Structure formats: C-alpha cells, structure tokens
Amino acid sequence: MEKAEGESTCRTSSGSIVSSDEDLMMNVFSWLPVKVLSRFRCVCKQWSMLISDPYFVSTHQGRATQDLNITKLICMVDQDGLIRVRSIEEKEERKITHDLIRPNYPNRFPWKYRYAKIVGRTCNGLICLEDCRLTLVCNPATRNTVVIPRGKERRYSYLQGLGFCSSSNEFKVVRLYRRSKDYGCELFTVFQRGVHPLQYLRSWRHVGNFPYHIYYPSERIMCHVKGRVYWIIEPLASSFSDIILSLDLELEKFKIVSCPEHWPEDVRYDEHVNLTELGGELSIVLRTLESWQIWVLKDYTNSIWSKEYQIKKNISDCPSLYDVKVAGIRRGRLLLIINFITLCYYDPRNNSLEVVIREIYPSSFPWRVDTYDESPVIPF
C-alpha cells in the first residue's frame, strides 16, 4: 500500500484509493478469522472491496502464517464430500477444535459418489479437488469453488497440483501428463487477484516436455515453494545426482536440482525420499536405517543443501516409527504425523516426542492430511 506524503489517503496494490479510516479498518480486519470476514463482505460494497483487495489478502495471510500458536490440519472425508479441519491452539493450555466444511460444489461435481479427493498440497489457503471427471479449486474457509476445464491432454494419465506466482498474483493448476514414456506439462491460470477474470485468458497452456520418469506415490506429489513447484524424478544413467525437477511459475521454465553431496548410495528414490516445505524452504526427508534426515535447500541456483535435522528411530517410550511425515516447524520443534494417524511435536535438542493428537482422522486416507492456513481469497 502506497501513501503519499502529507495525504490522509493511501493507494492499495489494486489501484483503489482508501482513506486513513479505511486504512485503520483494513489493519483491524486483517486480525479477524476468515469466517468473520465472509460475513463482513455482505455488510456493504466498501467492506467487500476492502476485504478482496490484494494488499489486504497478503497482509491477512502473512499474519496467519506467522501465528505459531495455531496449527490447522485439513483432510477430505471419505463420504458426502465434506472437508475436515482440526485446529490446535497453543496458549495457556492446549485447545483442539474440529470443523466439518461442505464446499459450494457445482451441481455436476459428483461428491455424493465419494470420488472427490484433495490432490497436491494446500497453497496460500486454497486446495485442489478432483474426481474421475472434474477438477475444482476451493477455499475451504469461504467454501467458494471454481471448476477447472479438463484440458487438451485429458486422454492421458496425469498428476496435478496448485501453485502460486507472487510476481503476477496468479494461482496456477500445474498438470503433468504422460503419453507413452514421455511427460508433458500444462498450466491453467485459476485466479489473478485484483484483475477481473475476463481480462485474461482462462485456458490450458502447454509449457514443455521432458524425458524423465515422475514418481506417482501419494506422498511424493508436487511440492510448491516460493513460486516454484517440484517433483521427484528418476535419475538418468548419465547423472545419478539429479533427482528433482522444478518449474518456475513466473518464467515457466524447468530446472534440474541435484541431491545433496555425500548422498547415501543405497537410496531408493521411490521409497526413501519425500519433498516438503519447511519454514518457507524446500526440504528433502530422507529415510535411512537409523533415522529420518531432513535436508534444506539453501542455494537454488547451485543446488546447495544443508542437513538441518535428524529424527532418530530409537526414541524412548515411543512405538515403532515405520512412517514419518514432516508437516511443519513450530518454535524449534518439528510437527510430525507418525504412522499416518498420530500428530506429534519432535524436539531435536533432546530427541523426544510429545503426542498432540493420537488419531487425527481415523476414517480418512493418511496421505490426505496436510497443514493449512486460512485465507480470504475467493477463486473465480
């Protein structure tokens, strides 16, 4: 937001002018839950425009992600098309709440047939839903959805997810499709904040082909970090260190990211390696015989990694750890999903686990659980 010297008005990133009173109102609104803001949109046109402004949305998201006292988990229910959100509030004492959300599904989206599922990971408050025929982008906090066309390559198998380009304020569905042994990639622009949807082209665009094999297992889905998306690939015979393919959503160009130096020789990329976002950086979770190692990408240009954490398997008073998903970091402790169902804090300083929730979602498929930050964004 830009404010000229000596003036009592300011200009938002969408170009609209607001007074100093509205500036104060925007600051107050940015601390409110999205559920409250959704009701405030109906009060008057001025409030609706203020809450929809890109600067306000960015400010609200920034405060939501920086609040380390609240952690939200999101999951698709296996029936009735419901989405579950669990909130863990850490203040004077721990408080856990549970919400069931039914998005505003279009009539032709067959959620009642139990085919709907979350694909990819959450992205700035939005999720991508699909069934065997349709794809949706949804904001669970506002329940708004938008239908995504099937695309030109719908005849072939594909893997998709959602990413965000901050330079253009665009959400993009990124879809990899396979024909025979080759892979291609296409993009669909879902939403450009501050721009009316009729002002830009809303169709799939082909961005390139590549001769790599992409691993499809559920935990090795697309990972979005800072305007780039990443996939694990099978190393080529000429270079066994090249294991990650990235796509810059602004430049729409691919790049190979090499694995860390001194990588274990017995690593199986289809079983031992997962990608995740940790503290705003791309991270690799590597499973070895003794532990889970967490490597963080420090230099994207030169593929320089640093081993930041190590989760040992011989934790006292803890059941066998046959699966560990790193969901985030809170106050120096790692947030882990253990054996698909148990949420824990792991303190690397003393190699200890604290159980937060023993059964996150007992009726859900384990790979559908993800961390989630609310956003007032409404997809078109």
Structure description:
The chain is mainly beta. The protein has a domain at 9-61. The protein has four helices and 26 strands. It has helices spanning 20-29, 34-40, 45-52, 54-66; strands spanning 9-11, 17-19, 70-76, 83-90, 94-101, 117-123, 126-130, 135-139, 144-148, 158-165, 170-179, 182-192, 204-210, 223-225, 228-232, 242-248, 253-258, 273-278, 281-287, 291-299, 304-312, 324-330, 333-338, 342-347, 352-357, 370-371. The strands form seven sheets. A four-stranded antiparallel beta sheet has the order 5-4-3-26, with no helix packed on it. A four-stranded antiparallel beta sheet has the order 6-7-8-9, with no helix packed on it. Strands 10-11-12-13 form a four-stranded antiparallel beta sheet, with no helix packed on it. It starts with 8 loop residues before the first strand and ends in a 9-residue tail after the last strand. Mean pLDDT is 77; it is low at 1-8 and 13-19.
Describe the structure using short key phrases.
F-box-assoc_interact_dom, 4 helices, four-stranded antiparallel sheet, about 10% helix, disordered N terminus, mainly beta, about 375 residues, single chain
